[in-house]
Amino acid sequence: NQGNPYHFLPLCQHTYMVYAHLTENYVGEDLFLLQSAAAFHDTGKPFCRVFKKLKGYHSYYGHEYVSIHIACHFLMELGFEWEFIEKVLMITEFNMK
């Protein structure tokens, strides 16, 4: 449970549903790029979880920036080219825009 009214699914299920929806409904040569961004888009949430007493639920402000660092690290370690990594990071950052 993500502890807020905007996400009713646990984080892993939400990420899987985004990935699956994209995979089932998108046809394009950049599918793998978008799948990669989908897989990483909320990975920063566990590091940014803060309970807001006045609101009565958790928030994850800035998680997209932490997600970018996680994605960058993993994709570099896996040997992806910088051009691909940069595109994934840009999509991941704009997850909240």
Automatic annotation (TrEMBL):
Superkingdom of the organism of origin: Bacteria
InterPro entries per the UniProt record, alphabetical: HD_domain
Ranges of residues in domain HD: 14-85
Name of this protein: HD domain-containing protein
